[in-house]
Design brief:
19 helices; mainly alpha; single chain
């Protein structure tokens, strides 16, 4: 594959985005688990729960700090590598990102500081409120980012202005309550909760295998498994909701994920496995499960899901419709908007397909000069690479089913077998630690790669979104980002492993003594005058 400016820019953003997302799921989930542990500490006064809160809170802090550093570089890329995209849709895409920075990130960052440095300054209840505000801020931050991303998948609440050559927001609440964004948010945060649950169970299993911090590890597994059971089922159910939304907002993506070349009579089957052949447009050795795809995609038994070939034919129709909109747009711009109502009506009637006409710019400068062969080629470009999507989706689903089984098993052992766990299960839990990150990365790959060739689905082709940079410029910055992120990865892994091996900073007796001193200090009594807290 020959790498041009578009391919290098895409690769650079993919590297930075997928690396950044290594930290996001654990931040989302661990913030909630830490708040839950501190809630138990405040309500029971048992020092071991404070010990757990501080230990897992330290790992959260390391992950949060590195995650912030990796996330900041992504926003600079919109101006560096994707300047036309920023100019074209910045009025809509920029609003959620600005709100995220002003509301969620400031909230999160402020209370993270209070969480780590406020143990000796705040009462237990006040510190608990801080812990929950950190958790809320973390998840609220994800909401606004996913609203922005959801708009790229399903661009609602906006229209194109031919005079300014920009997309302009027409309905903020349509953007806010975009069904794709809302489904993506709950699916993503649920995946983060599963990630944190698997991480907590895996690290705790490592402690148990070495006979260290046994009481902390057993209780951590109990919390992680209980939280993880709900999260794992939520991921699957909300993934079904995402599939349903995709069936009417991104039909080509759904058809590519399922390697569905031809429209199947309703209800469509689900290809369990197979080997997609994009050149021949067929799937070899496919094993199908009847009805399943129709039920997931349409929630009915009589609604068809269009196949790739049918969608390519429709793309040709939309390209020709887009040419009409493009011609009307040129006339509106030439006359500075002073055109007859018929031209305005013509543009309005076909403006939804303008983006499809822009696909022709890959082949010809003026889309109106495109030949039938070029229109056909542009329509074929709307089909993403099928086999990576097909297998990435199935890896993600298989891992999701595995998480459900794992969480149910550990929840059962924690709740009904006295927190006794067989050693083979503990070894499995340790080896499973990377699995949720693999599933999360596969999910994002399906979401973003499946949208190609669009930056904003049906509105702006990726090939038109890039900045006018040289290949050398992008190659150097790509190499710089890879080097920078490699250093951060080494730092992250070193710190996480160091503090996991070190374990809790205090044992239960030291924690109980601190609790007594802290309570006495806040009440104005001499140290040691407070009533002793009940231990384990």
């Amino acid at each position: 594959m020959e790498f041009g400016i578009v391919e290098l820019s895409r690769l650079q953003f993919a590297v930075t985005a997928m690396y950044h997302f290594l930290f996001v799921p654990l931040t989302l989930g661990l913030s909630i688990l830490v708040a839950i542990m501190e809630t138990v500490y405040v309500t029971t006064n048992r020092p071991i729960w404070r010990q757990m809160t501080k230990f897992w809170g330290t790992l959260f802090g390391i992950n949060f700090a590195i995650g912030v550093a990796t996330g900041l570089t992504m926003e600079f890329q919109f101006g560096m590598n994707w300047s036309y995209y920023s100019q074209y849709v910045g009025d809509i895409f920029g609003a959620p990102l600005a709100i995220e920075g002003l509301m969620a990130f400031f909230l999160e960052a402020t209370f993270v500081g209070l969480f780590f440095f406020g143990w000796d300054k705040l009462s237990k209840v006040a510190h608990l409120c801080v812990a929950w505000l950190v958790a809320i801020g973390s998840n609220f931050s994800a909401l606004w980012i996913l609203i922005a991303n959801g708009w790229m998948q399903n661009p609602v609440g906006a229209q194109f202005n031919p005079l300014t050559m920009r997309m302009e927001m027409t309905d903020f609440f349509a953007v806010l309550f975009n069904e794709v964004a809302q489904a993506k948010f709950v699916h993503t945060v649920s995946a983060g909760y599963v990630t944190a649950s698997v991480f907590v169970i895996g690290v705790s299993a490592w402690f148990l295998l070495r006979g260290r911090h046994v009481e902390l590890a057993r209780r951590s597994i109990t919390v992680g498994a209980a939280f993880g059971v709900a999260a794992a089922f939520s991921v699957v159910l909300l993934g079904d909701e995402s599939g349903y939304n995709t069936s009417h907002s991104q039909k080509m993506k759904l058809a590519a994920i399922e390697s569905m070349w031809d429209t199947h009579p309703a209800p469509a089957p689900f290809n369990l496995i197979g080997f997609p052949d994009q050149k021949a447009r067929e799937t070899h050795y496919a094993i199908k499960i009847p009805w399943v795809m129709g039920l997931i995609g349409t929630r009915s038994l009589d609604t068809q899901i269009p196949g790739i070939n049918e969608l390519v034919d429709k793309a040709q129709e939309r390209i020709r419709s887009g040419q009409i909109a493009y011609k009307a747009m040129l006339e509106i711009r030439a006359k500075d908007g002073n055109v007859d109502p018929a031209t305005e009506t013509l543009f309005k009637d076909h403006s939804a397909d303008l983006g499809f006409a822009l696909l022709l710019k890959k082949y010809v400068d003026n889309p109106l000069d495109a030949t039938d062969a070029q229109i056909k080629a542009a329509a074929n470009d709307t089909v993403p690479q099928v086999w990576p999507l097909f297998w990435s989706f199935r890896i993600m689903v298989a891992l999701g089913i595995g998480f459900i089984g794992t969480m149910i098993y550990f929840f059962y052992r924690a709740s009904f077998r006295g927190m006794k766990f067989p050693r083979p299960a503990l070894h499995l839990a340790v080896w499973m630690i990377p699995a949720p990150w693999i599933a999360a990365e596969m999910g994002w790959f399906v979401s973003e790669f499946g949208r190609q060739p669009w930056t904003v689905d049906g509105v702006l082709p990726t090939a038109l979104s890039v900045s006018r940079l040289s290949i050398t410029d992008v190659s150097l910055t790509l190499a710089g980002f890879v080097l920078f992120y490699t250093v951060l990865f080494i730092i992250e892994m070193s710190l996480m492993l160091k503090y996991i091996r070190k374990g809790p900073f205090q044992d239960v007796e030291e924690t109980e003594a601190w609790t007594n001193r802290h309570t006495a200090r806040l009440s104005g009594q001499p140290d040691g005058a407070a009533i002793a807290m009940p231990g384990e």
